[in-house]
Specification:
This protein is 33% helix and 21% strand. The protein has 471 residues and is α/β, with parallel strands linked by helices. Among the domains are: 155 residues, Rossmann fold, CATH 3.40.50.12160; 107 residues, Transcription Regulator spoIIAA, CATH 3.30.750.210; 56 residues, Nucleic acid-binding proteins (OB fold (Dihydrolipoamide Acetyltransferase, E2P)). Strand 18 and strand 19 form a beta hairpin. Helix 8 runs parallel beside helix 9 and helix 12 runs parallel beside helix 13. The chain is globular. The protein binds S-adenosyl-L-homocysteine, iron/sulfur cluster and FE3-S4 cluster.
Length: 471
């Protein structure tokens, strides 16, 4: 049993780590053949990708996947801590599982992911959710087969959460959701400690994977015919800093681009580490998609300082325009928080002003959510929730306006689309353009997910475009 200690999780020291190759434990291979699992994933792409590893580990144990938790012998929640509603969703699901377990005594229930790293969550599991069979943390994923086997064999609650990152595990099995687009981790953790954010505590300090390991994984994807790869990290721009003196995100992007995979994406970029070299490489290689997610969080330099974001409104705008000027046709998206503690109407107007200048192609907007243990949690927060909700609504009206305006500019243009499937609308395919626009389109030819087709855009909506494939 390892219980999380949030105090330790919050320590900022950089610890040495080893690269360790994952070894399968043959003793448990296929031990649970005939049993089924249901895996529910909350949160970001990092969690989605972790779930691809988790599915492979469960499959190794012999479990097979079902699509409803009602039909499963084992239910696992891969959780997210980023905002209160993510928390509430996971606890709501636990409530439903409690009922199910009363009818189905043998049901095995587990929790993993970012919430498992929080001492308060694990305390409440120990106290009020004694029926939960196991909990493991983000740094313990590789132990999944042993933890589940022990929980079942010993019929005793297992809690395995390391508070801080340990070794960097390579070679975990993976069952990818798609056979044409794939996530590839390049860096784990975060050292930025933005004052509102819980991620550095749940994911540990920054650890880059060796460039050889990343490139080998991409090469395999190329060999398997994948069309798109998304390089993942909480701050991908910090790639390599902990490992190399002279190999950066710009070098990695270039090396990946040279491997010839048709589409390369990367997320997320913190404005702080976005270098000129990166911009040049993105501009130079046509297979690096001209699509940059550049979270701004606020347009007020005063609030940005309180957030610990390390840039001002002015320096953000300078970077924004440099990216716009140097990368032809680039689309920039962002994340914005309204109602950070102490945000005044003037601060908020600065955000609206910045949004009008940047005219983002996409934006994820949130109301500040207090995360226990973060510095922002202790700040005075006099603005009532109702006012914050109004700010969010006003912000959304402005960002939505520009989504539509940007989309309208694409009507009549021909865009390359990576086909994802058939959309709800009858006879319409859907997929994403290079700049990550959702496109619904008709086609005379039969298409399969993973095809790259050129689509003429006929109509613009706020969140999507309609068109027809060029035959
Ligand atoms: N590493 C990424 C962010 C990952 S979290 C980055 O820095 O770009 C995704 C988004 O969630 C953040 O950009 C932020 O806008 C939002 N977020 C994080 N913590 C939050 C909180 N406490 N309340 C509201 N939104 C938050
Ligand atoms: Fe959170 Fe900031 Fe790190 Fe992003 S950069 S994960 S917002 S601490
Ligand atoms: Fe959530 Fe953890 Fe991702 S807190 S956003 S799942 S890193």
């Amino acid at each position: 049993m390892h219980l999380p200690d949030f105090k330790e999780a919050r320590t900022r020291d950089i610890r040495p780590y080893k690269r360790v190759e994952f070894k399968e434990d043959d003793a448990v291979k296929n031990k649970y053949q005939g049993k089924t699992f249901y895996l529910k994933t909350y949160g970001c792409q990092m969690n989605e990708h972790d779930s691809e590893n988790i599915e492979a580990l469960l499959t190794f144990l012999g479990f097979s996947k079902v699509n409803s938790y009602m039909d499963a012998d084992l239910v696992l929640l891969n959780t997210c801590s980023i905002r209160e509603n993510a928390h509430n969703k996971a606890f709501g699901m636990l409530g439903r599982l409690k009922h199910l377990k009363q009818e189905k005594k043998d049901l095995i229930v587990g929790m993993c992911g970012c919430m498992a790293q929080e001492s308060s969550v694990v305390d409440s599991i120990l106290k009020d959710y004694k029926w939960v069979n196991f909990v493991f943390g983000t740094h313990n994923m590789y132990q999944l087969p042993t933890i589940i086997d022990k929980a079942i064999e010993e019929n005793k609650q297992q809690i395995e959460v390391f508070s801080r990152e340990g070794d960097l595990i390579e070679g975990l099995p993976v069952l990818r959701v798609n056979d044409y687009k794939a996530y590839v981790n390049i860096i784990y953790g975060c050292n930025k400690f933005c004052t509102y954010c819980i991620v550095p505590y749940t994911r540990g300090r920054e650890r880059s994977r060796l460039k050889e390991d990343v490139l080998e994984e991409v090469q395999k994807l190329v060999n398997d015919g994948y069309k798109e790869v998304t390089l993942l990290g909480q701050n991908v721009n910090a790639y390599g800093k902990d490992l190399y003196d002279d190999y950066t995100m710009a070098n990695l992007l270039e090396d990946v681009a040279k491997m010839g995979i048709p589409r390369i994406r990367f997320t997320t970029s913190h404005p702080w580490d976005f270098t000129d070299e990166m911009i040049d490489v993105i501009a130079q290689y046509p297979n690096i998609m001209p699509s940059v997610h550049l979270p701004v969080q606020s347009g007020s330099s005063r609030i940005l300082k309180l957030m610990g974001r390390r840039y001002t409104k002015e320096s953000y705008l300078e970077l924004f325009h440099k990216i716009k000027d140097k990368i032809p046709g680039v689309a920039i998206s962002t994340d914005i928080i309204v109602g950070f503690p102490g945000e005044t109407e003037e601060d908020f107007l600065e955000t609206l002003d910045l949004v009008r200048e940047c005219q983002y192609d996409n934006a994820f907007t949130f109301i500040f959510s207090k995360r226990e243990g973060t510095p922002a949690c202790r700040l005075a927060d006099p603005v009532p929730l109702k006012e914050k909700e109004e700010r969010l609504q006003r912000l959304n009206e402005v960002v939505n306006h520009y989504f539509l305006e940007n989309n309208k500019k694409l009507v009549g243009k021909q865009l390359e689309v990576l086909v994802e499937g058939i959309s709800d609308k009858k006879n319409m395919y859907y997929g994403y353009s290079a700049t990550n626009k959702l496109i619904n389109f008709s086609s005379q030819r039969d298409l399969t997910p993973g095809d790259l087709v050129v689509v003429t855009i006929e109509d613009a909506k706020t969140w999507s475009l309609d068109g027809a494939a060029v035959e």
